[in-house]
Hints:
The complex is a heterodimer of chains A (118) and B (108). With 118 residues, chain A is mainly β. Chain A contains no helices and eleven strands.
Amino acid sequence: QVQLVQSGAEVKKPGASVKVSCKTSGYSFAKKDISWVRQAPGQGLEWMGWISVYNGNTNYAENFQGRVTMTTDTSTTTAYMELRSLRSDDTAVYYCAVMGRWRRLDYWGQGTLVTVSS
Amino acid sequence: SYVLTQPPSVSVAPGTTARITCGGNNIGIKSVHWYQQKPGQAPVLVIYYDGDRPSGIPERFSGSNSGNTATLTISRVEAGDEADYYCQVWDSSNDHGIFGGGTKLTVL
Lengths: 118, 108
């Protein structure tokens, strides 16, 4: 079965960077794109961007352009999301998700809590 | 940019029908997907392509989409359906995903 296992919780200081990993299994990694979504405490879902595992092309939401980089490692079937210049309002749970037809998000990781605090 | 509007909350009694709307400009021409999120858990896809169900999702969950409104319908609501529900579309003009603000379903 499809599984996405994300890295553990992180605590970062303002201005630092964080890199979250998403280890996938149970499907053909190169055939599905991956999106990243975040959720601030008590808030809704916010789409951050997506990456084509096939060719590495990325498309980021305007709110994150210039601060986020999404990558993949096909040898380990792992996706990564790095967010730089962290601010307190970046405190959130970050999710990776496998994209299916019609750009639906078929499978989700368990989420990674990133806390930004001085 | 494209905006999806959901009511913040919907409350229904067990055994009745819950309808959660998702409004957007001419949303009827887009494919709408719905996610259920219970506290402390990751979202789960419950409806895709307006009204199709992934395997394992009960037939009580259905969806429709026309004009400026998409609707998630949950029949014979159970206590276990209490959750936040989010609609999602894809904006093909910029290849971006968009979520509605979410609706908290309370089972009275």
